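Predict structure. Chain length: 687.
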Amino acid sequence: MIPRLAMSPVACRNSSLRKSYVEISRFIHSQRHEISRTLSSQCPRNGYRSFSSSVLRRQIEPNDSLRKTLNGYKATIRGYDYPDSSEKYAMLDKHKLGSHIELVGYLGSRRDVSKVLSFALLRDADQRFCVQLVSSPKESVETHLRLRNLKIWTPVLVKGVLQERQPAKDDSVEGMRLINDREIVLESIEPLNDFATDIIVKNDTVFPPEQRHLQIRTNKELREALIFRGRVTKEARKRLCVCRFNEIETPVLFKSTPEGAREFLVPTRNKGLAYALPQSPQQYKQILMASGITRYFQFARCFRDEDLRADRQPEFTQLDLEMAFAEEHQVMHEIEKLLTILWDRFLGINLKGAFRRMPYQEAMASYGSDKPDLRIKSEINTVTDLLSQDLISKITPVSNPVVEAFTMNLPTKPEETRKFVSSFLDSPEGKPFLENPDGQPGVFISDHSKPLNGLGALGPQAAMEWPKKVTPPDGGLLILQARKNEPFSGGFTVLGNLRLALHKAAVAQGILPPLRGFRFLWITDFPLFSPSNDTDPGQGGTAGLSSTHHPFTAPKTPEDVELLLTAPEKAIAAHYDIVVNGVELGGGSRRIHNAEIQEFIFRDVLKMSSERIEDFRHLLDVLRSGCPPHAGIALGWDRMIAVMLGKESVRDVIAFPKSGKGEDMLVKSPNVLTKGQLDTYHLRVKE
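Prediction complete.
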């Protein structure tokens, strides 16, 4: 017999505790089991429910309206595929007459011939095809009444019998192909959703931006522009991949760096810290060049908090491209190849040999713009030496000015030309030119019925010696404009803008025909730096200079590198813009690939503060790692698609564009932050 061991007081106490724990555990287990049985008795036998608390939800008793909605919604849950819309419509003439057909689409216009006969159109989901429905109570009284009660644009599921019909006069309806020799005798029609009764849709209904979805649904031209954009993007991606470019995505949450444009900031929950949305993937793609990626591209979303115009949006898409071990002409060559393919593939236009190259100074002197529209023939000429000082003093208060002129050939009589010019200058478009601080434009109308052809105000000698290239024909215009005798800077002159505005007004009034075709050119040899101004923030340096393109742009030649030491404002950039029909499609440059030169420009040329230079430390460290020479470009994809389609605004090729105030009128953004959101991100609204 084994003797029992005596237990110590501590052991007895632990034994009691263990016994207590076991009893508590059994009690809790039994209670859980009882709760489980209670819940199980309240759940359906074929399912389970879980609750976040012991409080059970009260069952909802639906009223008649809710029950009707629930039943209608349940009827749209098919459990099998809907028929392929467009393909099935296109093949209707291949189906045997008398066969049963099932189609989905949008209900179109309806014509009630009598109480017992109605005709309606059914649009396919893509609105490429439509077919006629025939309805009568003979087939189904319920279906006939339902058809008559459904609103146009209701999405429906239709079942019926295919039969032959008398061909209609036209084989298209509202831009859709009408299935002309077939119709469907309606057996049933099921609405797949309600179309609100307060939405009025007619052929001439113009929907506001708040109803962008209805703009897209009812406007074929807008839908086709969006589809066209997708096709062009797909083709561009395909061609770039063939040319050994690699598509790589870069982050959208970036950091604030002074590249030149204002940024959108994204606050974080870490107090005082914020991301910045990228103005472009510029720095990331340069980092990729140092990472061994030789050819990169990306359809990049970019964000800039800048003043909006017809060709600008706060968020936009650009085709971003960069090449390692490359010079400017190699990038330009790749872009010419791509644009030539796209224009040929989608517009049937051959662009081979169409890309002229023009230095910035020539563009500004001859057209008053760094993105000239070469389809407008008249060029600007300097005429200062041909004018008397007395006449110059009458047209400008500027001392020692430059006076420039251009002619505008109009197929009108002198008196009609006077009326046109007067109406333009009295309009809002003409007002800025009359308020020009350098003086109002001098307007002369050629009239061969008057002495010196009506140009006597120029002075007898000037009228006699006036060059032919700025001598207008009878009824034509001669425009003079003075400006300060300073080097060109910026993207336009007053006379350049006046030249464009007058031409646009003449086209709008039917005096001149609309411009046709495409005229491409490269603008090169931009100034590396431009004088700072109050409109653009630039890089925030104290030198009074800002980078014309961006601060990573390289000087063009060794001589321009030397000018950085003595006269940086005279240095020329390895910068190039691709322009067509007065629109800048994109801009690019060879980049600075040397860290010491890049930091020298930040510190000594632009005179940026040490704190701002440190914002670029990541890039400087990357360049130090043996980054190869590289160059690239970014094409404004929204602008390019708009140009291809002849649209005035990029809003016409963007699915959900922002308004002129930067607002999305459909979803109502941006919206006011709540107090809770402000507190989360440690923000407060400054009064």
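Summary: Confidence is low (pLDDT under 50) at residues 1-18, 35-41, 43-49.
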